[in-house]
Specification:
Blueprint (H helix, E strand, L loop, with lengths): L3 H7 L8 H4 L12 E10 L3 H12 L4 E4 L15 E2 L7 H8 L1 H8 L4 H12 L7 E8 L2 H16 L5 E4 L1 H5 L9 E10 L2 H14 L3 E3 L4 E5 L6 E4 L2 E10 L10 H4 L2 E11 L4 H7 L5 E4 L5 E5 L5 E9 L7 H12 L8 E12 L5 E5 L3 E5 L5 H16 L4 H8 L8 H22 L2
Parallel strand pairs: 1-2, 1-10, 2-7, 4-12, 10-17
Antiparallel strand pairs: 3-6, 4-6, 5-6, 8-9, 9-10, 11-14, 11-15, 12-13, 13-14, 16-17
Length: 437
């Protein structure tokens, strides 16, 4: 969802000029909300969190209405790297240190669940989104390799055995680049066309009676009433249960959530089609790749053999002036054989960063739920959280209660200074990456 003032300035909001929008599957026209309505459940935000929650609830027979400020998948869900990566941004080791062995064991039990849900949705509803298998974590330094080895051992201790270390020579069988010291492949990972996944899930939701209103930015939310109420400029919805899934684009509509996360933008490029031979020479096994630096690069091949390459961070969620100038040096460092390659698309999008890098789930009042703060790991995390939200709403709060009790922390410096503090922190971690410590 996008803030009201942005919508008011630009009028009806199209998708960003991304490769994904240009190659999206057909979608029906969905009207804006008009008039006053009543429903069992209202969900704000038609990205992965909202779609996952809504589809699970619709399958259980609930009457669900979804409100989206722009279009289905307009935000991070339709702009991201398309990578199915198991786990949260915060590692299991970090979670164990902060919150104890019991919480770490609980999280370990669900880190691969999001990918399983995605694959089940694709199969059950015949979603055409170019699913491919496998993802690689690439290491630049010996320190990175030791970090991956520790991760493999820790995950194996929880019964997760899908990962395999790769030497420098073994990694070359997957990636035609000399910049890496080695890496690790996760056979439970994969990649998809993210916008087409969102559109397919929306169609599945509607096939079960769900209703989606687009171009309907929320201007006010009443979470204190016994039946929460959502208001737009054109109408309102009163519901038994409200679910807030606006994530990085919720804006200031719900002040209680504004300080919990910070919007952060990341940028992406899509090359012109490379041709089958050239593309397959770059990434012979067609896996997706991300490195393990604090400010990382991530990339993969599209179905039509473009290289989709992303990276960079802008705290606060603003867009850089020249995305190509920012990313091309990184692309050419990894693949010098692509120097001078034509770039057909360049775009930016926001994700919601939590200070702890752990997603947040909770309630406002008795009947309003929220989930946000996936911190760059939202493709899988949002699908898992959607299932957990649906479980809680339908009466099983066992998993929801665990996440609701995980403490959250505000960003140092508050809203005014959180960006400069975060930038300084990123400089420190980037320096550690460069020094290999």
């Amino acid at each position: 969802m996008m803030p009201r003032e942005d919508f008011a300035r630009t009028g009806p909001t199209p998708h960003t000029g991304s490769y994904y929008a240009a190659s999206a599957n057909p979608a029906p026209h969905r009207p804006p909300l008009t008039g006053d309505h009543s429903t069992d459940i209202c969900i704000v935000g038609a990205g992965y969190s909202g779609l996952s929650t809504g589809l699970h609830l619709a399958e259980k027979g609930y009457k669900v209405v979804m409100i989206e400020a722009a279009q289905v998948g307009w935000g991070a869900s339709g702009r991201n790297g398309g990578q199915i990566v198991a786990g949260l941004n915060a590692s299991l080791q970090t979670i164990r240190k902060r919150y104890g062995a019991e919480t770490a064991g609980f999280v370990a039990g669900l880190v691969q669940e999001g990918g399983e849900i995605i694959r089940e949705r694709i199969k059950t509803y015949n979603i055409q989104c170019d699913l491919k298998e496998g993802n690689i974590f690439a290491a630049y330094t010996g320190a990175h390799m030791r970090e991956l080895e520790d991760r493999l051992k820790l995950w194996a201790s929880y019964g997760l055995h899908n990962q395999e270390m790769l030497s420098r020579e073994q990694l070359r069988n997957h990636i035609a680049s000399d910049v890496y010291a080695g890496g690790m492949i996760d056979h439970s990972g994969g990649h998809i066309h993210p916008l087409n996944l969102a559109l397919g899930e929306a169609a599945a939701f509607e096939s079960l009676g769900g209703v989606i209103f687009e171009q309907s930015p929320v201007v006010k939310v009443d979470t204190a009433a016994a039946r929460p109420k959502v208001m737009t400029s054109g109408g309102s919805i009163t519901c038994n249960t409200l679910v807030l899934c606006g994530n990085a684009y919720l804006g200031h509509v719900v002040p209680e959530l504004t300080a919990r996360v910070m919007p952060v933008s990341t940028q992406m490029l899509a090359t012109a089609p490379l041709g089958v031979d050239r593309a397959n020479a770059l990434i012979p096994t067609d896996v997706c790749v991300e490195d393990v630096r604090y400010i990382l690069d991530y990339y993969r091949l599209s179905a039509d053999k473009r290289l989709i390459f992303g990276g960079g961070l802008v705290y606060g969620g603003t867009d850089p002036k020249d995305i190509k100038a920012k990313l091309l040096p990184n692309l050419e460092k990894v693949f010098p054989q692509l120097k001078g390659v034509a770039i057909d698309y360049a775009w930016s999008g926001n994700f919601a960063l939590s200070f702890s890098r752990v997603p947040q789930m909770g309630r406002l009042g008795d009947n309003t739920y929220f989930a946000h703060g996936y911190s760059g790991h939202g493709v899988t995390g949002s699908h898992t959280f959607g299932r957990i939200l649906a479980e809680a709403i339908s009466g099983d709060r066992s998993r929801f209660d665990v996440f609701e009790k995980v403490p959250w922390y505000p960003f140092p410096g508050g809203r005014m200074f959180r960006v400069p503090y975060s930038v300084m922190g990123s400089w420190w971690y980037a320096l550690r990456d460069r020094l290999g410590v």
